[in-house]
């Protein structure tokens, strides 16, 4: 640090930049009592979920929406009695990729929908049929475990679009 300050003093403008940066850090750190949106407690709600009735006997997909009225969180894993393993996936440009986690933005939503983010239930313990339900436990970094019950729908079922909501409050 000493070498940096000495060079700044010789150059003149370097010292001013250093002082201005320190002032900016001080002002940012003294932001008052209001916490940033990411520091606030997440307020999560899972809705519009479903599992399409699988065609095969060893895998199924799952879809839902997580709405967040609080601070940011991260979906880190999902478990279910339906399958030996449940993995998180994204689809971009037609290519499916397994994900370690998904961000749930502060005052935002995380969508799991056909053609995008989704769950993969792997090594099914039984093949779910239309009319049954699938219990899942979503594990979040800050909020902990959140249970949801997803109905099994016909494979032609289409969830509401991002602007629609099934459960009005």
Automatic annotation (TrEMBL):
Keyword DNA-binding belongs to the record: no
Keyword Signal: yes
Matches recorded under InterPro entries: LpqE-like, Lxx211020-like, PCuAC_sf
Signal sequence bounds: 1-31
Keywords: Signal
Organism domain of life: Bacteria
Name of this chain's protein: Copper chaperone PCu(A)C
Organism: Streptomyces evansiae
